[in-house]
Amino acid sequence: MSVELKNIHFSYGKVKALNGVSLTLNEGATGLLGPNGAGKSTLLKIMLGFLVPDEGEGRVLGYDLRTEQKFIRQQVGYMPEDECFIPGMDAVTFTAYLGELSGMPRQEAMKRAHEVLFYVGLGESRYRLVDTYSAGMKQRLKLAQALVHDPKLLFLDEPTSNLDPTGRQEILELIGEVASTKNISVLLCSHILADIEAVCDQVVIINKGEIAANGRIQDLKMIDYRLYELKIKGELETFRKELEAAGCRVEETEDRLVKVYTPPDFNHLEIFRVAARNKLQVRQFVRSQTSLEDLFAKVVGVD
Amino acid sequence: MTTIREKGYHHWDGQLIEKRCTFWPITRTGIKLAFQRKYFKFLFASSFFPAVVYAVGIYVSERLEDFKFMAQGAERTIQVNPGFFKSYLSQDFLFFMIILLMALGGAGLISDDFRHKAVQLYFARPITKLDYLLGKAGVVVFFVGLLTLVPGLLLLVIKLLFSGSFKFFLQYPWLILSIIFYSLFLMIFFTSFVLLLSSLSKNRRYVSVLIFAVYFLSDITQGIFNVIFRSPYSALFSIKSNLKQVAAAFFLEKLPYAYPWYLSFLVLIIFCLLSYVVIKRKVRGVEVIR
User: Which chain B residues contact residue A83 at CB under 8 A?
Assistant: First the structure.
């Protein structure tokens, strides 16, 4: 078990950022999802020991959150969301320097820095000043510095931001490889749901400082609801109201596709009955594959 | 023979160690980065000019017979005594060079980390805030020490070597302690001064200007108060005057200003303590607004 949190509370003054978060993360890759201000970054910072929780307890890699932060940071690799570097250094010196600060001997850190820079695809430009790197290269460099000391757990905050589609794909493959075959647990915090779906097998959705959903992505998608996509001719409003009264959620996309999220025990024929009562023509009816986006929208309650 | 490995990620087979001086890599890197700055090496070398002149002074004072033809009356002007060492360690040029070097090589110590959000990279490592600050302080201590402590002790050694006896040492046995402690005092003061200003802005250029501005404005303030009140206490507003007053006390020399030396000492110590409090508040792994 990589992370175990029990009843974590944290406030920024009067603003409650985390409200009784309990969480267990196992080995492998886990996605951390949530809208802006949900408390994702606060949770990451608490796990890293940057912030001390007001209440609750927890362990990261077996080390106590409150008293053994130093050991946690030694074993954890952190890739921050912000573009951060030390000006005036080349990439290999920068990576080796941070490896050394993690506790690696100087020579070993330098040797390892070369290896991880090659791994993240910066081998050819490792002697260039980091100030001159493009945004995408800086993103890779941040991943390299997080990996340099061979951590047991990786916290990745928006790892694919600023990357072009090819670069994004490559980084996701690297993260996927590290998480699946190299015995390194990964906690991936991202707004890009497709990234999480591509890499992670578990997901934690956090909303308003509380855990809204937690578990294997496949299980969550199956259990919580069913999704039907309809094309309808006629006035939607009363149809929507009746279905919502029956416990469904109805959304209309820009191309007039109606998405109906139904509870698991809901009889889909009821949709036809409601349509008939409202004198609507159902021109298309498909049971759709639910995506993480749908799950996210449902638990967070945003369209 | 090295093993040929597959391309991809490999675990590191070494062992992470708990270092005794966690701050040392930060200091070493800071020094290296300072030397990479334009003109820094030239200015650093130039700042040893007074030390060379003083060393020549000691040599001339010991060989007055040889230089009589060109240095008439030198026996009165070049007197190697505690005042000689005090004048080296509290001269305007030395302070100016320290300020200049720090404006060039020390201004970005913390401000660059703020600007490029590198502080979180440090604190994501097993280092404490104290390690970080010690590492940054080490850079200033290194340069100030090289310009004060090292030349101060070398001048003493040169004096002993050229005089060929320990008479001078026995005459002023406390002098070595004065050199060490006053140099340490300068290191502590300039470290607080530079790190405080560096933590006040994210722009190293502003910090460089601020280093000069605070140093010279304190002198100007002294001048203004002196004109208005005609009081020696106006020297308490000047960094340079306070340092000179404390230097005179450390070397048991006549005080340049007619007020107790410990007032200057207190002003500088309070400045250092306040700087520490401000720096500690400013340097954080994350921005937390409560």
Answer: 116-117
Closest in A103, A147, A182 to B126, CB measured: A103
Give the pLDDT band of residue B105 (cuts 50, 70, 90). very high
Q: What is the pTM of this model?
A: 0.84
Binary contact (B120, A80; C-beta < 8 A)? yes
Those of residues 173-212 in B touching chain A at CB distance below 8 A are none
Which residues, 6+ apart, have CB-to-CB distance to B28 below 8 Å? none
CATH number given to A3-220: 3.40.50.300
Interchain contact B41–A (C-beta under 8 A) = no
Of the candidates B117, B124, B286, the beta carbon closest to that of A73 is on: B124
Dump strand ranges (E) for chain A.
3-12, 15-25, 29-33, 55-60, 63-64, 76-79, 153-157, 185-189, 202-207, 210-216, 226-233, 249-252, 258-262, 281-288
Residue B234 burial by CB count (10 A; 0-12/13-18/19+): exposed, middle or buried? Answer: buried
DSSP at A81: S
pLDDT for A213-266, tens place per residue? 888 877 776 656 778 889 988 888 889 999 988 888 888 887 888 988 888 788
| Beta-bridge partner residues of A12 | A15
- Cα(A161)–Cα(A256) distance, rounded to whole angstroms? 31
At residue B5, the pLDDT reads 60
User: For A14, which residue in chain B has the nearest alpha carbon?
Assistant: B290
Check CB contact of A111 with chain B, cutoff 8 Å.
no
Residue the block writes with tokens 């006040």: B200
pLDDT of residue A180: 84
What backbone phi and psi angles, to 5 degrees, belong to A255? Answer: -90, 30
How many angstroms separate the CA of residue B141 from the nearest CA in chain A? Answer: 20
Q: Which CATH number fits domain A224-300: 3.40.30.10, 3.30.70.100, 3.40.50.1100, 2.60.40.10?
A: 3.30.70.100
The larger pLDDT score, comparing residue A301 to residue B277, is at B277
B35 in A contact zone (CB under 8 Å):
no
CA distance B46 to chain A (A): 24
Locate CATH 3.30.70.100 in chain A: 224-300
Query: What is the C-alpha to C-alpha distance for residues A94 and A116, in angstroms, rounded to an integer?
Result: 12
ipTM exceeds 0.90, yes or no: no
Return all residues near B56 (Cβ < 8 A) that are at least 6 apart.
none
Q: Per residue in B50-78, pLDDT tens?
A: 999 999 989 888 877 676 666 666 566 67
CB neighbour list of residue A74: distance below 8 Å, 6 or more residues apart: A102, A103, A149, B16, B125, B126
Residue holding tokens 């460099």? Answer: A141
Question: In which band, very low, low, confident or very high, does the pLDDT at B267 lie, cut at 50, 70 and 90?
Answer: very high
pLDDT value at B101 more than 60: yes
Task: Tell me: pLDDT of A189 over 60.
Answer: yes
Indicate the domain borders of chain B: 24-66+73-282
